[in-house]
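cache lookup: miss for this entity combination. No prior model stored, computing from scratch. Input as submitted by user K.M.:
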Amino acid sequence: MSRRTASVIPGFGLTLGYTLTYLALVVLIPLGAMFLFSFQLTLEQWWNLISNRQVLFSLKLSFGTALAAALLNGILGTVIAWVLVRYSFPGRRIIDAMVDMPFALPTAVAGIALTALYAPNGLIGSLFPFKIAYTPLGITLALVFVTLPFVVRTLQPVLADFPKEVEEAAACLGAKPLQVFWHVLLPSLLPAWITGFALAFARGVGEYGSVVFIAGNIPMKTEILPLLIVSKLDQYDYPGATAIGVLMLVVSFILLLLINMLQRRIQPPI
Amino acid sequence: MSLATLGKNRTRPASRSPGAIALIVIAWAVFAVILVLPLYIVVTQGLSRGLAFFWEAIREPDAISALKLTLLATAISVPLNLVFGVAAAWAVTKFEFRGKSILVTLIDMPFSVSPVVAGLIYVLLFGAQSKLAPYLQEQNLQIIYAVPGIVLATLFVTFPFVARELIPLMEEQGTTEEEAARLLGANGWQMFWHVTLPNVKWALVYGVVLCTARAMGEFGAVSVVSGHIRGYTNTLPLHIEILYNEYNIVAAFSVAILLLLMALIVLLLRQWSEARLSRQLKANQDI
């Protein structure tokens, strides 16, 4: 523990000690318990538990739908962030405020509302000749709702801080608006965009509440990874649940590290 | 995503090229279809059998006991995570030490863990198959499928909220004001109450608001540890699930209206605390 200067500000030992103790009690020990429990399995057993058809299917479904939703939000979120920062138009403030709705709304409420909306007899579902709810498409749309704020909220501040002079310089040098976007704006927005994308993807892979209702939970059709953990727990299959849990935790930890690395690139250390 | 970055001023020319109009229309469409329609569904479905039915649905004993448990879990986890958030932000932003970025990453952990995994870790730690089970039984302590499990799961999922709102802001504010207070003779608590707290209060309010909203709305983690015992281990979101799965759909939406109102209050408080924060930042710049 090396401090930069002999600080006159008190409370280092107290606050750091409390932080570490509380972190250990609430987060680290329970997470460690899961790893400890998973060590009772040999690597081969673990592999067998996660490589059966049902788990592999759920794995593909969860990652596929989360990826599709994150990509869609990568586009929609960029448009919304752009519009909110660059233009003034009627309703701008209310859209800006409501972007956070998916964060504030409990996932179970979102889940039943989206199911009613996209069900075959629902307001949107009845407009389409094919089924939306109870299919992977329905899961993707639920994830689009839940993860919409991520890309918007990571891009917005970066876009707002982007110096107008750089774009103007490019325009003066003869660049067309799209060229300015591709060659000037996009490269500097990319770290923030990927951060938002990764946050949305990570949330999408683990999302449960808003998805269970619209998924319909048909094995080998719409059974997502978190749901598989729940059904294994319902059958008291602790090793099976743990094997999937460890897998999901490792994936989310890798994504978290990636996000932190990117965030350091957005805000270079002074 | 924190208040600190959103509070800055932006300049918006009212340009009206065809491209701009097209983009604005897309934004409006996304807003209406993705964000507003689900809310409209909640309200219309919840009230589709009239106010009397709605009133009955939110006043039945199971709903009341679910509300009580939700409030209990919130009342325990929010203050604990508030104290933690302030302590963590203090340690991380006012001092330099090795391993700081790892600590910040670990504080963020609960955000990226699936809610179901959050529930699972407590089941593994305290459930019937765990090493602690015989001891817990001896003490007659039931944690999983009981209220303590629900509180623990709520504590876990709301863990980072306050810390995450405070850290970026306090990072930006630095330590000069606190150092000045100390040099002028303030003791540690005086410095904290009169210098640090006024500087961060709006971010603190917003962190607490977010923490409360998540605590009241958490579904996945709580669902895993609850066991769904009616009138005993059901929170409001779990109560909605049970009603929905019993095809008591209107009642489910009636209860959902309560949580929707909570979400709207959260958004209003966010606007309010953001406006206060940006006013404060501007005032500080003027000095």
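stored under new cache key. Chain A touches chain B through 103 residues (CB under 8 Å).
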